[in-house]
Amino acid sequence: MHTVDLALRSTNYFAFEALLRAMVTANGQSSPNEPFPLGSHSDKSVVQHGFQITTRKLPILKAAPIDHMTAKLGIAPPEMIFGDNIALIEHLESGWKIEFNAFDALDLVDKTGNSMLQVAHSKEWQSTREKKHEGITEVVKPFDWSYSTGYKGTEQSKSKALEPSNTPIPLELLKRPDPIIFFDEVMLYEDEMADNGIALLSCKLRVMPARLLLLCRFFMRLDGVMLRIRDTRIYVEFQTGEVIREYTAREDKYEVVRQKLAMQGRDAPAQLRDANSIVDLLPIVDKSLERVLLQ
Predict the structure, then answer these.
(1) Which helix (H) or strand (E) holds 102?
(2) Cα separation of 227 and 268, whole Å?
(3) Pick from 217, 220, 208: nearest CA to 248
(4) Strand 226-237 and strand 242-253: pairing?
(5) Which of 187, 226, 245, 295 would bridge 290 by S-S if both were Cys, CB 3.0 to 4.6 A apart?
(6) What secondary structure does DSSP assign to 111-168, as a single string?
(7) Over the stretch 70-125, which tens digit does the pLDDT of each residue have?
(8) For 282, phi and psi rounded to 5 degrees?
(9) Nearest 5°: CA angle at 241, between 40 and 154?
(10) What's the pLDDT tens digit per position in 187-224?
(11) Nearest alpha-carbon partner for 205 in 66, 86, 71
């Protein structure tokens, strides 16, 4: 993965969104506050051995849907919410499915303020989320402004469900040079934490002839303070119907990781922006395994 300028990336997203809205409104198809239409044209899907894998990628939510989501969540939203995006794995025969979406992930963010990173930057961030109405400032209530979530996906099942297990994901099978018949990356939300770092949640999945792997990763970098990565991996073996969910949470102080990179002679400023470059440097603080057999 190439390191990109996060500020530039955000600007591009907003520019694209503004352009798209202007074009749609000009054509008389929609107003800027109406939701984007959902349907098969926005979905990519593949069926493999009775499992249907679907992704949906649409632009950032518009104003009205954001207000609706904010009211339901009870917290101020991230700067960029891809609220219509999903990554979905479904076993067609049993009806078992697991979906990854922005709303359910944000609903797990601490809303009490007890987990909020107590640093000077938090006041600066809060000021950017205040709403002013006729000179009256509506102050954002305290919550975890890093949008840290332990989201493991939204599971739905009529009978069988994931249960605690000691069975790990078979990494050797994933190392095989099998052809990839489906690949996609889905962004769920992103926030630049008042230009003090990044908090983002995204999903990547690859489907091979005999199996699939989905990675949902939350990555948080608060410059000078902390680095945090929370990974949920979903592994499916098609022939047996085995599904394994692995959750791993890692974090460490920013300066500790920076020193580790410097000792290895690596470009710390660039590496600290890339979750893949630092994930193995962060100690594990939480881990769980679950498993279900659907056939």
Answers:
(1) helix 102-106
(2) 13
(3) 217
(4) antiparallel
(5) 245
(6) -SSTT---STHHHHHHHHH-EEETTEEEPPPP--TT-------EEE-SS---EE----
(7) 999 998 889 999 999 999 999 999 999 999 999 999 999 988 866 555 444 455 44
(8) -95, 130
(9) 55
(10) 999 999 888 899 999 999 999 999 999 999 999 999 98
(11) 86
204 forms beta bridges with 185, 215
| The amino acid at 291 | R
Q: pTM for this structure?
A: 0.80
Number of residues written out for the chain = 295
- Which tokens hold the place of 117? 């990173």
**How many CB atoms sit inside 10 A of residue 21's CB?**
20
Nearest-CA neighbor of 63 among 29, 32, 25, 89? Answer: 32
Nearest CA-CA partner of 202 in 151, 238, 240, 168 = 151
Query: What tokens appear for 288 in the block?
Result: 């769980």
What backbone torsions phi and psi does residue 33 show, to the nearest 5 degrees? -100, -5
Q: Other CB atoms closer than 10 Å to residue 246's CB: what's the count?
A: 20
